[in-house]
Write a structure and sequence with these properties.
single chain; mainly alpha; 2 strands
């Protein structure tokens, strides 16, 4: 999703009427940060494509943070981040995780399908 679209949804979820949400990205970003000014919040931004996509979504209020996942290194955010690089799970670990999500019985009943899902996720 584009930053402006995400900001519109976040502003609405924070109680701003859709008609009161600004059109321009800079204005939406300021509206968003105004809404967060007196809140402590953790913003989770999953699968970010680039730093420019997430920068407007970062909270600036004290005690707030953002958790960003990305398949790319977001070097432009380096000054305000702590990076943790994770490798791909080994097949047995990935199948174990899948079993926790969909149920061990289902994975045991369809082991080839489970392996295919794990392979496609890598």
């Amino acid at each position: 999703m584009e930053s402006g679209e995400v900001l519109g949804e976040l502003l609405h979820e924070l109680g701003v009427a859709r008609g009161a949400i600004r059109d321009e990205l800079d204005e939406r970003t300021q509206q968003y940060r105004d809404q967060l000014a007196n809140r402590r919040i953790l913003v989770v931004l999953d699968n970010a494509a680039e730093a420019a996509q997430v920068r407007p979504l970062l909270p600036e209020s004290p005690g707030s943070a953002a958790l960003i996942t990305s398949r790319m290194q977001l070097d432009e955010l380096e000054e305000a981040t702590h990076e943790i690089v994770l490798d791909v799970l080994e097949e047995n670990q990935a199948i174990e995780l899948l079993a926790k999500v969909v149920g061990a019985e289902r994975v045991a009943a369809e082991p080839e399908a489970a392996r295919m899902i794990v392979e496609l996720c890598n």
